[in-house]
Design brief:
This protein has 435 residues and is of the alpha+beta class. The protein has a single domain, classed as Outer membrane efflux proteins (OEP), CATH 1.20.1600. It is built from nine helices and six strands. It has helices spanning 2-19, 23-33, 35-56, 115-180, 186-221, 246-256, 258-278, 323-389, 395-430; strands at residues 61-71, 76-82, 85-91, 97-112, 284-297, 302-315. Strand 5 and strand 6 (302-315) form a beta hairpin. It is elongated, with a radius of gyration of 41 Å. The protein starts with a helix and ends in a 5-residue tail after the last helix.
Length: 435
């Protein structure tokens, strides 16, 4: 029976590990299922349809229509004077008529000045929608990465708090034994019990922090926040093989960031809006052709009329009470405003890249510094514990050493986590994975 449970336990562990997500799998899942990403993908598809509409405006439009009517018109009476004699003449038929007809028409723009800027605007908006989708993918990748390592950090923090509680519990038992032997004071035991209680509080909080981190992770992936979360522990290396310089990162950002490309496209759209407003000064020429057949049936006779015509129509707005001039002025001012926004956005990108670069450098240095603090704190705890057990140290020194050790380990874990977040934030700032 014992062997059976061992085998089942091994199988369950294997299946859990097999279903666990790594960082890349988590990001891929979010890109396919996160509602925000899906919404931007649909908007890009809508922009593509709008571009197709703008393209179709250059091609002919054909219409076919038909009608069937029942009609009546009373005969008209006319008086005609022939040789000085007035005579009444009735024209028409005093009966109901059945009228049916079919018409076909084709229209082809020859020169419509607004079509070209409208097409360019639709093209740029489609490109901008794709960029917005790509930017959302980048933003989502960062959020997923942050939450992925947030879950791992929470799990490691729980282990750290559990280890800290074990240290304080072990020390409290040691103090209890020494108190029973008359080698310690009651105050020492009380201090040790307070420290143990504080560690237990921290452990309880760390358990809830895991649930909070998992909920945030599921939300980033587009899952229900209560779904189970199993992640592959890829660890926190706290190291980078190579960190590019700021200038290189900034150049990469300007070359790759989708939101920067969208900002430039918005300027292009404003330029096309200006051209669109200026197109009112130009004439429009449309070629059209129509053909139709109309049949009228009376009880006594039937008439059939066929007709067709081909025409070229030109129009040119000469004056509209300065409406065009104000439209041009509005578009021109909007273009100037957009160009100013481009400069501000350029500066914002430089600031964001600089912040990410400095935060990453700082995080890497803190990993080294906090590791040194952990090494020193571990040695201090060993010494203070040995001295206290030998009757040469104080209980306060042991508790202080334990607090310092837990704090240094917590700081080191936070530093390792911050490196991963700073790495992801740098990738987000430059618009691609460079680290």
């Amino acid at each position: 029976m014992k062997k059976y449970f061992v085998v089942v336990g091994i199988l369950m562990l294997f299946l859990t590990e097999a279903n666990a997500l790594d960082q890349a799998e988590s990001i891929n899942y979010a890109i396919k299922n996160n509602p925000t990403v899906i919404a931007l993908q649909k908007k890009a598809a809508a922009a593509k349809a709008r571009l197709n509409q703008a393209t179709s405006a250059f091609f002919p439009t054909a219409n076919l229509s038909g009608d069937i009517d029942k009609a009546y018109s009373s005969p008209a009476t006319a008086q005609i004077n022939i040789g000085g004699v007035a005579q009444n003449v009735t024209i028409g038929t005093d009966a109901n008529a059945s009228v049916s007809g079919i018409q076909a028409s084709v229209s082809q723009p020859v020169f419509v000045s607004a079509l070209f800027p409208e097409f360019n605007i639709a093209q740029k908006r489609f490109d901008a929608a794709n960029n917005n989708y790509q930017q959302t993918v980048i933003d989502t990748s960062f959020i997923v990465t942050q939450n992925y390592f947030g879950v791992l950090k929470a799990l490691k923090m729980k282990k750290l708090m559990s280890d800290s509680l074990e240290l304080s519990r072990s020390h409290r038992k040691q103090v209890q034994s020494m108190l029973n032997a008359g080698m310690a004071k009651k105050a020492d035991l009380l201090q040790s019990m307070v420290r143990e209680a504080n560690d237990n509080v921290a452990l309880i909080q760390s358990k809830y922090d895991i649930d909070l981190a998992k909920g945030s992770f599921n939300n980033a992936l587009g899952k229900d926040i209560k779904q189970p979360v199993e992640l592959k522990d890829e660890g926190f290396t706290g190291k980078l093989n190579d960190l590019p310089g700021f200038d290189e990162l900034l150049s990469t950002a300007y070359a790759n960031r989708p939101d920067w490309k969208t900002c430039l496209l918005e300027t292009g759209i404003s330029e096309e809006q200006l051209k669109l407003s200026q197109s009112d000064y130009l004439p429009n020429i449309v070629l059209s052709a129509n053909s139709g057949n109309k049949t009228t049936t009376y009880p006594a006779y039937k008439s059939n009329i066929n007709s067709w015509n081909v025409s070229g129509t030109g129009s040119w707005k000469i004056f509209d009470s300065f409406g065009r001039e104000n439209k041009v002025q509005e578009a021109s001012e909007n273009l100037s405003a957009q160009r100013s926004q481009v400069e501000q956005f350029r500066n914002n990108i430089a600031l964001e890249v600089n912040d990410a670069y400095l935060n990453l450098k700082s995080a890497l240095e803190l990993v080294i510094a906090t590791q040194q603090a952990v090494d020193s704190a571990e040695e201090s705890y060993k010494v203070s514990t040995s001295l206290y057990n030998a009757g040469m140290g104080t209980n306060v020194e042991v508790i202080d050493a334990e607090v310092a050790l837990t704090k240094s380990k917590t700081d080191h874990l936070n530093a390792l986590f911050n490196v991963e977040v700073a790495r992801a934030k740098t990738n987000k700032a430059v618009g691609k994975n460079v680290l």
